[in-house]
Amino acid sequence: MKPIDIIIVDDHLLFSQALNGLVSNFKEFNVLTVLVNGKELVNYLSQKKQKPQIVLMDIQMPIMNGIETTKWLKENYPEIKVLALSMECDESTILAMLRAGAKGYLLKDIHPDILYHAINEVNTKGFYYTEIVTNSLLNTIDNPNNKETFLKERELEFLKLTCTENTYKQIADIMCLSPKTIENYREALFAKLNVKTRIGLVLFAIKEKIVIL
Amino acid sequence: MKPIDIIIVDDHLLFSQALNGLVSNFKEFNVLTVLVNGKELVNYLSQKKQKPQIVLMDIQMPIMNGIETTKWLKENYPEIKVLALSMECDESTILAMLRAGAKGYLLKDIHPDILYHAINEVNTKGFYYTEIVTNSLLNTIDNPNNKETFLKERELEFLKLTCTENTYKQIADIMCLSPKTIENYREALFAKLNVKTRIGLVLFAIKEKIVIL
DNA sequence: TTTTTTAAGGGGAAAAACCCCCTTTTTTTT
DNA sequence: AAAAAAAAGGGGGTTTTTCCCCTTAAAAAA
Question: Which of A92, A108, A141 is the last residue of a domain?
Answer without folding.
Answer: A141
